């Protein structure tokens, strides 16, 4: 063994998944043996493992590729992660996997794409190799995936799952990306354990779950055509809707509609610059929304989206006179509601369904309507104050 060859390092906390089950030197030696064939020594010192190998070439292979331990991928450290000095003990590198790009596309293209997303790369682009499924030993044949290491991103941020590189769609994976959990709901029978294309049941009403009518029908249990003080809005011809073409300035930019502003902010905050750009170019609000629907949303976005919407609507109040006037047609009992198939912002129903179903049974949360109600109240109040002031002056 060449004494000049430095070991590579591992932290025990990174390899030991289960507190009760110790990782043995044998398990690590065997796992590393699937990647290189000259492991010389695997030594544990409290939380630190040192792995000595026979040649520099093997050390490079191990450092570059890491190894798999019980189906988990483990990266090794080049230097002792606990030693004092310039190395921060918690400095971890994140492996970024890029799938779906033909080999003919240049590495620089991928690098540029990732850097534009805010990744600080710490290695060159590398190529994954096909492994023997039984021995896990790597062959010399590529599988088309490329990967690279980057510095950990700021808390709560991550790279988008899909993007475009050289005009081709690709998929990006790294630790810390949230999983896109779209709620499974069947729009045919409204069960929540399958999707419409898998449905084996008859179409039924979303509100009462009876077969043979739609929400808003007079056959529905919660049919109520005489709801007082409900203002339902939807579509690009309704000034109350975010789809209504009213150019507005907010967050230092000019947008075609409030929907553009909202979807663009979502894309930017979730690190999806490609879609942010597409949203700016989208002709209609519906196009902007469709692009926005493909964005992978961060937890942070879920926490802040109501405030973003409120800011955008406040800006619309200030910049669109007709919007203001429409809001002022309300009174203190008015319920505003977006009649849209959106279970968060809207009623979850179309316009007829919304107007003819008692409001307590709307399936959507109507968050947008709730914000409108707030804005309308403060508009009415400030108008009343102005009037009474004028009154005193007379
Ligand atoms: Zn179904
Ligand atoms: Zn019904």
From TrEMBL:
Protein name, entry field: NADAR domain-containing protein
NADAR domain residues: 237-380
Lineage start: Eukaryota, Metazoa, Spiralia, Lophotrochozoa, Mollusca
NCBIfam families: ribofla_fusion
Organism the protein comes from: Pinctada imbricata (Atlantic pearl-oyster)
Domain of life: Eukaryota
CDD domains, sorted: NADAR
């Amino acid at each position: 063994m060449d004494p000049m060859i430095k070991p590579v390092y591992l932290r025990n906390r990174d390899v030991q998944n289960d507190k009760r089950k110790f990782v043995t030197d044998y398990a690590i030696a065997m796992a590393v043996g699937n990647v290189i064939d000259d492991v010389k020594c695997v030594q544990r010192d409290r939380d630190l493992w040192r792995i000595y190998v026979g040649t520099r070439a093997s050390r490079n292979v191990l450092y570059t590729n890491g190894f798999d331990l019980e189906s988990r991928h483990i990266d090794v450290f080049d230097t002792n992660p606990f030693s004092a000095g310039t190395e921060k003990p918690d400095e971890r590198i994140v492996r970024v996997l890029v799938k779906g790009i033909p080999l003919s596309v240049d590495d620089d293209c991928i690098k540029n794409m990732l850097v534009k997303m805010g990744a600080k790369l710490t290695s060159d682009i590398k190529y994954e190799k096909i492994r023997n499924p039984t021995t896990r030993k790597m062959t010399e044949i590529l599988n088309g995936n490329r990967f690279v290491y980057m510095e950990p991103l700021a808390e709560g941020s991550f790279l988008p799952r899909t993007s475009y590189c050289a005009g081709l769609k690709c998929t990006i994976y790294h630790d810390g990306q949230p999983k896109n959990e779209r709620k499974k709901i069947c729009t045919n029978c409204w069960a929540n354990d399958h999707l419409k294309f898998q449905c084996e049941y008859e179409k039924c009403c979303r509100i009462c779950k009876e077969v043979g009518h739609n929400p808003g029908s007079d056959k529905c249990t919660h049919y109520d055509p005489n709801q007082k003080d409900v203002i339902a809005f939807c579509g690009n011809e309704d000034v109350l809707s975010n789809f209504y073409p009213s150019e507005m300035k907010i967050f230092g930019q000019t947008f075609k509609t409030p929907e553009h502003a909202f979807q663009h902010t979502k894309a930017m905050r979730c690190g999806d610059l490609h879609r942010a750009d597409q949203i700016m170019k989208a002709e209609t609000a519906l196009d902007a929304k469709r692009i926005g629907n493909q964005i992978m949303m961060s937890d942070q976005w879920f926490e802040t989206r109501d405030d973003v919407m409120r800011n955008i609507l406040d800006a619309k109040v200030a910049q669109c006179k007709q919007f203001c006037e429409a809001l002022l047609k309300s009174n203190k009992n008015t319920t505003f509601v977006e009649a849209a198939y959106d279970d968060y912002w809207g009623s979850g129903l179309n316009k007829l369904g919304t107007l003819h179903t008692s409001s307590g049974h709307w399936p959507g949360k109507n968050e947008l309507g709730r914000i409108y109600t707030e804005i309308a109240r403060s508009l009415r109040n400030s108008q009343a104050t102005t009037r009474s002031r004028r009154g005193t002056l007379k």
